[in-house]
From TrEMBL:
Signal peptide: none annotated. GO terms for molecular function: oxidoreductase activity, acting on the CH-OH group of donors, NAD or NADP as acceptor. This is SDR family oxidoreductase. Pfam families: adh_short (PF00106). It comes from Pseudomethylobacillus aquaticus. Belongs to the short-chain dehydrogenases/reductases (SDR) family.
Amino acid sequence: MSANTTKVALVTGANRGIGLETARGLAELGMTVIIGARDLAKGNAAAAALREQGLQAVAVHYDADDSKTIATVHDYIAAQFGKLDVLVNNAGISEEQLMGGNNSADVALDAVRHTFEVNLFAVIALTQRLLPLIRKAEAGRIVNLSSILGSLTLHSMADSPIAPAKSFAYNTSKTALNGWTVHLADALRDTNIKVNSAHPGWVKTELGGEHAPMELVDSNKTSLFLATLPADGVTGGFFHEHASLPW
């Protein structure tokens, strides 16, 4: 398979949940997908399951808590493909109950630090390391998995639709991630690379819980939209499916 003609996509945290559905969707579009997984055995199993469906998938060890794995990812992609067309920064954590009310007065600083390490700093580090490979793609696309809970506009509304969900560490890590999206998009405005934030929806996952209204199968729609934007598509935006969200 030619590295020059086949699009290559990396999805982090993709051995299950939203990440796996995103990897599946990209592979169904004809891309070779690389599943970034903290547990490589689980990543390999997920990739094998996609290959059994006739899709092109491989796995690589990536742990957002281990900065050494960034070089592993870069070196693997460079050696096997020589470029990266799509980067979906999906891996993320929450150490809080997302619907647990407002914990800002007593949130543990260790939880804030760790959440930012995974949800923001690891994303920045991985993206910066992979940018030379993304620049080699004909039309690079970077999708940062954010959340509507990162919207300061919605949180500050008197009749806020997300008022019950004020888990400080998670929410503000996604606010900061949105800031990274805006700044990186501006830095790359004169290139063929587009950078956007995606709110996948409130999805029935381990993080979203069983009462979430969206089924897992629909959770990849926003990322697929942003990963396949045309040359005149938006950059530096925040979306759920095709709708723009307030910062």
